[in-house]
Structures are given as C-alpha cells and as structure tokens.
Design a protein that fits this description.
The complex is a heterodimer of chains A (about 110) and B (about 110).
Chain A (H helix, E strand, L loop, with lengths): L3 E4 L2 E4 L5 E7 L5 E7 L5 E7 L6 E2 L6 E5 L5 E5 L8 E8 L7 E2 L3 E5 L1
Parallel strand pairs in A: 2-11
Antiparallel strand pairs in A: 1-3, 3-8, 4-5, 4-9, 5-6, 7-8, 9-10, 9-11
Chain B lengths: L4 E3 L2 E5 L4 E6 L4 E9 L6 E6 L5 E4 L2 E5 L5 E6 L8 E9 L7 E2 L3 E6 L1
Parallel strand pairs in B: 2-11
Antiparallel strand pairs in B: 1-3, 3-8, 4-5, 4-9, 6-7, 7-8, 9-10, 9-11
Classes of the chains: A mainly beta (about 110), B mainly beta (about 110).
Chain lengths: ~110, ~110
Amino acid sequence: NAGVTQTPKFQVLKTGQSMTLQCAQDMNHNSMYWYRQDPGMGLRLIYYSASEGTTDKGEVPNGYNVSRLNKREFSLRLESAAPSQTSVYFCASSAVGSYGYTFGSGTRLTVV
Amino acid sequence: GQQVMQIPQYQHVQEGEDFTTYCNSSTTLSNIQWYKQRPGGHPVFLIQLVKSGEVKKQKRLTFQFGEAKKNSSLHITATQTTDVGTYFCAASFSGGYNKLIFGAGTRLAVHP
C-alpha cells in the first residue's frame, strides 16, 4: 500500500509563479487535509475536505486554493507564490472525522 | 481562536532518563491525538485519547488525558536513541467538524 502520495517532493518557485501540489491516497479515506509546517510553529491547517465534493478553510487559507478532484485526490494550488509560502507542505487523510491521520512524505517548497 | 499550547519546545536528555511533554487548551477538547515525527520525516500517528481521565500505554510511552479534557501529556520512561524526534499533540475541539489543530511540538534529543 502506498498510503498517501505527494508530488513533487521538492520545488523551487520564483515569486509570482503558480503551481499545484498533488496528493492522492489509496486507503478509501473520506477526509483529506493540507497542512504547512514551519520551524517552531508545528503544523497549521490550510484547507480540508471532510468528504468528496466539500472543501473548507483551515487556520491559514490565504494565498491557497484547493480542489477535491475525487475521493482519492486533493490538490493544493498556489496562484501567485510569495516568499512567505516557503514551507514544508503535508497532505493527510483520515477514514472518519479526525481519527488517526495518515500523512504523506511532504513537499519542500522554496519561493525565491 | 482554537489553539493548543505545548511545552517544552525542546528537551535534551541522557539515554535512560525520562521525558514528558504537555499540551494545554483553554477550552474543552473532543479528543486529543499524539504524533511522532522523526527528523526529515512526516508525522506518524501514535494514539488517540477520548475519555476524561483516560490513560493509555504503549511499551515505554504513557499517554494521559486530563479530567477536564483540557490537557494531556506524553511520558516516555527510560528514553532510547530511537525516541529522537518531535512529538506533537493534536486536538479536536467540541462542536463542528473534528479537524485537528496541532501543538507546536516538543523536539526530543537523546544523548547516548
């Protein structure tokens, strides 16, 4: 089982460029999440999708958009990247509500 | 807003010493989860606590949930070098969809 797969693993963007981070899970989980991790700040929730067809804002949604493409896939888009968006991005999924998230291996994004 | 305070931020111990990290919230939690993240890795789910006063053990790890469901702790007995990493608590708050809010984490260093 692959679990949660994120692509790409590393990315360098110039300020103002756009990109989409991809996430797919093969565990038939209903809920999916995007977090960012910055030093000393833990993981902060950007957006989540409680179930296929729904998305909601988390703690730090500004500058991001998401798409729940189907039950397996949940993508995160940066329309105009800023240096403040330099971070490690984690996608996660869970079967029901908040129980036991499974995380992907992360995407290290640098915006210069 | 909803937040969880976690202390300490860092802890350095000699191998064999005990270690404890604490999480606190000003509001009642629905449940609390604990995750471990090895250096360069992704968070891995350890356990979930749901009931007031609940205590769970996993080998040398003991997890507690406060009677008022506003605080929790993780205690490691006789640390080993394999315990190195960052430990996060993640809380789900009462009411609404149970998305997780993470604490800032406690980084544990174990010196042999």
